[in-house]
Design a protein that fits this description.
Residues 4-71 form the HTH gntR-type domain. This is Transcriptional regulator, GntR family. The chain is 28% helix and 34% strand. By secondary structure, the protein is of the alpha+beta class. The protein has two domains: 6-68, Winged helix-like DNA-binding domain superfamily/Winged helix DNA-binding domain (Arc Repressor Mutant, subunit A); 73-233, Chorismate lyase, CATH 3.40.1410. A hairpin with a 2-residue loop joins strand 5 (121-131) and strand 6 (134-143).
Length: 240
């Protein structure tokens, strides 16, 4: 018979609450309450709570306690995926906030990716994407300015990057290549997403091209909260 560790009593109790009684963002019982209920030490109770945090069921607010994470958002990556459309399909509200934008010189690595001359002007942009006002996706863009003249004047009020490409610049954006990685960058999780626990971050590097000219429009690093996102890669278009 499998031995049950003390912290698993706390884990199983809270897990059942999450699945039967608590809603998204509801606060779970305090550590003191759980210590008294199970006659366990604070260290043991915290071990059970931390396991739920690491598995993405809970998140912390400094000085406020622990809360139920919303169920994961299924985000599909295909050659034509757009953030706005994916979130609207889930009957949730997408929004975007510009964090930084500037004109920089392309270094050797970025110039090769964008297929432009080294030191050529490009647009560097950071933004945060929200789902129902919750930070969900942080992105860093390197944009081919030669295809996007004057875009720096448009981006501050943009609600959809792909819509700008299509409607203003008559481009046909298509995801050409994506690389997926898992990172535990504390700066991203704690400073950007304001998450207290060390949450793994899903990093996706994406190259977007214009389907008509085959020229590279942008290269983007996207960082998804692993406690909120479930990534699905759709290869249907590549099946003969």
């Amino acid at each position: 018979m499998k031995k049950t560790f003390d912290y698993e009593l706390v884990y199983n109790y809270i897990f059942k609450l999450i699945n039967t009684k608590l809603n998204d963002h509801d606060k779970i019982p305090s550590e003191n309450t759980l210590c008294e209920k199970f006659s366990l030490s604070r260290l043991t109770v915290r071990q059970g709570i931390n396991k739920l945090k690491n598995e993405g069921y809970l998140y912390s607010k400094r000085g406020s306690g622990n809360f139920v994470n919303p169920k994961k958002i299924i985000y599909t990556i295909s050659s034509h995926t757009t953030f706005t459309n994916e979130i609207l399909k889930l009957k949730k509200t997408p929004s975007i906030k510009l964090l930084e934008m500037k004109i920089i010189k392309a270094d050797e690595e970025i110039s090769k990716i964008l297929d432009i001359r080294e030191a050529e002007d490009i647009v560097y942009m950071k933004n945060m994407r929200f789902v129902d006002d919750t930070p969900f996706l942080y992105a860093e863009y390197y944009m081919n300015k030669s295809l996007l003249s004057g875009i720096e004047k448009i981006l501050p009020t943009a609600t959809s990057i792909s819509k700008i490409y299509k409607d203003i610049y008559n481009l046909k954006p298509k995801r050409d290549k994506s690389e997926i990685d898992i990172t535990s960058t504390n700066y991203i999780s704690k400073q950007i997403f304001n998450i207290q626990n060390d949450l793994p971050i899903i990093k996706i590097s994406t190259k977007t091209i214009d389907k008509n000219s085959n020229k590279t429009i942008d290269y983007c690093y996207s960082y998804f909260r692993s406690d909120m996102a479930k990534i699905i890669v759709d290869y249907k278009e590549n099946i003969a």
